[in-house]
C-alpha cells in the first residue's frame, strides 16, 4: 500500500537523522531564497502597478532624450524641451491638456538642517489642476495665485527626512527663499517620490533662474481617444517639427501603461536573474539527495534482498526509495517556505523603515504550493537513479552483500 511506502521512508529518515538533516539543509536554503526573492519581486510589481493606476491610463509623458524615463529625468539630459514643443503637443488631436514641469535637485533647509531633494515645479492655473488631482494630499494642493507655497512628500512630514518632521504651516527654505508648507502627499511607496517637494513653476523659474527650460511635459488624453494612438501622433508631430527620421528621436513619448510595462519588465529580468542564482543551491541540494540515497542503497542492500526474497517487486523497492528521496525534498521545501516567508517579511519591514515602500512581499498560496511541490519533485528526481539501482539488485546477490 502507498501508506507503507511513506512509513518505510519516514523510518529510514529517522534512523539516519544527522545525514537526513544535512541533506535537507541544501534544499531548504535554496527554497528559502527562491520563495523570498519571488515574493519580493511580485510585491514590487504590484506596488508599481498600483502607482501607475493612480496616474491613470490617459497620461502621456514626454521627455527629452531618446531613452525615456528609464534613462533618467529630463534635468539630466543634454537635450531639452521648449515652449515651442509644448504648443505643438497641445495642438495634437486627442490631447486635452499639456503642461510643462521642471525637475531640479535643490538645497532645502528646515530648522538649520539642509537636504537636497528633488524639487518639482508645476503650473497652478485652473487648467492644470488635472496634474495634481492624480495624487492624494493632506492639507491642500497648490492653487492659482500661490507664490511661495509648497507641498511636500510623505517622508518629509512623517519620517524625519530632516532632523525634525515638518508640519503643515511650517516654513522651509528653498535656495534660501522661505516657503510655507500647505500640503503633504500621501505615501507613494518609493523614497524619491516620498521626499519630493512641489512648488509653483513661475516661482521656481524666478528663484532658480530657469526662464525657458522644460524637463518634462505631461499630456492628458481626451476621453474616447486611445492613449497609444495619441502618443504616436505626438511623436510624429515632434519628429516633423524637428526634421528627424524614425529612430533618430531626441525625445521620448510614453503612455503610463508603456512605462509601467517597461519597469515591470526590468523588475522581471532582475528577479529571474536572482532566482537563477538561488537555483544553483537547489541543484547542489539535489546532488546531496542523490548522494544520500546512493549511500542508503548501499547500507540497505541486504534489507533490499530480504524484501525481494519475501515477494517485493522491483516497483515496490523503487517506490520506497523514490518516496524517501521525495520526503527529504518535501521537508526541506516546507522548512524553506517558512524561512523564505520570514526573510521576505524582514526585507519588507526594513524597506518600510528605510523609506522604500516598494519593497513589499506578496506571498500567495500558489507560490507556497509551487515551492513545496517543486521540492518534492526535485527530491524524487534526485533519487531516481539510486532507486533504479536498488530495484535492479538481485535477491541472492543482495543477501550475500557485506
Which helices and strands occur, and which strands form pairs?
Elements: H1 2-15, H2 17-55, E1 59-64, H3 83-90, E2 95-105, E3 108-110, E4 113-115, E5 118-122, H4 129-132, E6 137-139, E7 149-152, H5 154-158, E8 171-174, E9 177-185, E10 197-200, H6 201-208, E11 216-221, H7 227-242, E12 251-255, H8 256-299, H9 301-309, H10 314-354, H11 365-382, H12 384-391, H13 395-400
Parallel strand pairs: 5-10, 7-9
Antiparallel strand pairs: 1-11, 1-12, 2-5, 2-11, 3-4, 3-8, 6-9, 7-10, 8-9
Helix pairs in contact: 1-10, 2-8, 2-10, 2-11, 8-9, 8-10, 8-11, 8-12, 10-11, 10-12
Low-confidence stretches: 70-75
State the major sheet: 12 strands, mixed
* Beta strand %: 15-25%
Task: Give the overall silhouette.
Answer: elongated
Write down the overall mean pLDDT.
83
* Count of DSSP-assigned helices: 13
According to DSSP, the number of beta strands is 12
Describe the structure.
With 402 residues, this protein is an alpha+beta fold. The chain has 2 domains: 2-51 and 262-400, no CATH class; 80-249, no CATH class. The chain is built from 13 helices and 12 strands. Strands 1, 2, 3, 4, 5, 6, 7, 8, 9, 10, 11 and 12 form a 12-stranded mixed sheet that branches. α2 (17-55) runs antiparallel to α8, α8 (256-299) runs parallel beside α12 (384-391) and α10 (314-354) packs antiparallel against α12 (384-391). The longest helix has 44 residues, at 256-299.
Main attributes of the structure:
402 residues; alpha+beta; 12-stranded mixed β-sheet
In brief, what are we looking at here?
It contains 13 helices and twelve strands.
Amino acid at each position: 500500500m502507498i501508506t507503507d511506502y511513506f512509513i518505510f521512508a519516514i523510518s529510514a529518515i529517522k534512523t539516519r537523522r544527522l545525514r537526513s538533516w544535512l541533506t535537507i539543509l541544501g534544499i531548504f536554503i535554496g527554497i528559502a531564497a527562491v520563495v523570498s526573492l519571488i515574493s519580493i519581486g511580485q510585491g514590487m510589481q504590484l506596488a508599481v502597478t498600483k502607482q501607475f493606476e493612480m496616474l491613470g491610463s490617459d497620461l502621456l509623458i514626454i521627455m527629452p532624450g531618446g531613452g525615456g524615463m528609464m534613462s533618467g529625468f529630463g534635468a539630466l539630459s543634454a537635450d531639452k524641451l521648449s515652449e515651442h514643443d509644448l504648443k505643438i503637443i497641445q495642438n495634437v488631436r486627442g490631447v486635452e491638456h499639456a503642461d510643462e514641469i521642471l525637475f531640479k535637485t535643490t538645497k532645502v533647509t528646515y530648522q538649520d538642517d539642509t537636504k537636497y531633494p528633488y524639487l518639482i515645479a508645476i503650473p497652478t492655473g485652473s487648467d492644470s489642476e488635472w496634474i495634481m488631482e492624480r495624487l492624494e494630499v493632506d492639507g491642500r494642493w497648490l492653487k492659482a495665485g500661490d507664490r511661495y507655497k509648497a507641498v511636500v512628500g510623505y517622508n518629509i512630514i512623517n519620517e524625519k527626512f530632516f532632523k525634525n518632521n515638518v508640519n503643515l504651516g511650517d516654513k522651509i527654505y528653498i535656495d534660501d527663499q522661505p516657503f510655507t508648507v500647505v500640503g503633504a502627499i500621501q505615501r507613494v511607496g518609493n523614497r524619491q517620490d516620498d521626499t519630493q517637494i512641489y512648488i509653483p513653476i513661475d516661482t521656481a523659474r524666478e528663484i532658480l533662474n530657469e526662464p525657458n527650460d522644460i524637463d518634462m511635459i505631461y499630456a492628458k488624453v481626451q476621453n474616447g481617444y486611445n492613449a497609444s494612438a495619441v502618443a504616436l501622433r505626438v511623436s510624429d508631430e515632434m519628429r516633423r517639427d524637428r526634421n528627424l527620421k524614425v529612430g533618430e528621436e531626441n525625445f521620448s513619448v510614453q503612455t503610463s501603461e508603456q512605462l509601467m510595462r517597461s519597469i515591470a519588465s526590468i523588475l522581471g529580468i532582475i528577479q529571474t536573474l536572482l532566482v537563477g542564482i538561488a537555483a544553483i543551491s537547489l541543484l547542489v541540494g539535489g546532488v546531496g539527495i542523490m548522494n544520500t540515497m546512493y549511500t542508503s542503497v548501499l547500507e540497505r542492500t541486504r534489507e533490499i534482498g530480504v524484501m525481494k526474497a519475501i515477494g517485493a517487486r522491483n516497483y515496490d523497492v523503487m517506490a520506497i526509495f523514490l518516496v524517501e528521496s521525495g520526503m527529504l525534498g518535501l521537508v526541506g521545501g516546507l522548512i524553506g517556505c517558512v524561512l523564505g516567508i520570514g526573510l521576505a517579511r524582514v526585507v519588507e519591514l526594513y524597506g518600510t523603515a528605510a523609506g522604500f515602500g516598494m519593497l513589499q512581499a506578496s506571498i500567495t498560496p500558489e507560490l507556497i504550493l509551487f515551492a513545496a511541490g517543486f521540492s518534492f519533485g526535485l527530491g524524487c528526481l534526485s533519487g531516481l537513479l539510486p532507486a533504479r539501482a536498488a530495484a535492479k539488485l538481485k535477491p541472492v546477490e543482495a543477501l550475500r552483500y557485506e
